[in-house]
Amino acid sequence: MEKNKKQNRLKGAVLSLSLLTVMAGAAVAPALQIILEYFHDVDQTLVQMIISIPSLFIALTSFVFPTLCRRFRTRELVLMGLTLYVVGGCLAGAFSNIWLVLAFRALVGMGVGIIMPLSTGLLSFYFPPEEQDKLMGWSSAMNQMGGVVATLLSGVLASISWRASFLVYLLGLISVILCLIYLPNDRLGPREKARKGEGAWKKYHVFIVAIFLEMFTFFVYPSAFAMETAKGRIIPHQYIAVIMAGMDFAAFLGGLGFVMVKMALGRKTRFLAPVLFICGYGLLLLGDGWAWVIGGSALIGFANGMGIPFIISSGARKAGVEAATTVMPMLSMGLYCAQFLTPMLLSVIGALFGGVGLAHLPYAAALVSGLVFLAWSARIKS
Questions:
Q1: CA 196, 199, 202: angle at the middle one, nearest 5?
Q2: pTM to 2 decimals?
């Protein structure tokens, strides 16, 4: 009984990290339009980097994560990452200089670059394979629930001030308390260097490319939804944050139901996320009305909630107990590279195809990406 309580507390501490990770950069997305208006004399792409710059530093931190694992123990790493997350996240709203804002957003990225591999890798390290599908689904659900809470809270805070929206990163204090009390201070891997990166890339590249495609396809939504919806002039601005939070709730349901869906679909599960993405962006392309927007948002959210745990659990199962120091940093790098590059790629696509007169061009780009993701998913063997 005492052992079960200890295990459940450990699960709670590790899963609390998932509240903070994948949507870390996009937590202040509902305030982006207000931030754009404040920095009206700054290039729009630079302001959009407030959302994407954490992703670049998450990817860069992923390169050094195995080295950090050799030098620091589990609890030390987690608290280091959480400190960067909370401090960098909250203080970004204290400045009126866009470069200082971006600098503190970079600290958020460094923090998440440490937290993200641990949030999933510790599940493989501490728990047996037969529990991992369920726990990966819970991790995805917790992540999306964090997105629901953060998006709604950020929207409320943004109505006070764009600066206040950054206080949403105080949510990290929940994990600080839980990890201080319940997380062991173990060493994740040996002190010697791990296998060569090129060998790991060859072994895990199918999962890395898959999660890049998955996240690019999804991240078009938080990058473009507020501005694309505003163009339609049908849905009032104050409801945009609510719809985005609803998308996160659909993703939460996807993660929560991941194990049941995987049991029902078997190997076909690998095709579910890309098909749902294609359908979701298809609805957003077809119309600007409430039904189209809400239906498309729900499908995109559910796709993300299903896709991430499938790819991560498949990669973790292949890596075994070494997942935290091998495949997880590489998956983290692929995921957040996609988040960082999405606004830039959308700008390039807009420059190349903006003259063709297609409404909602970002959604069309995501639909094409969804088709590529569908084709690539045939290579995933779970």
A1: 150
A2: 0.80
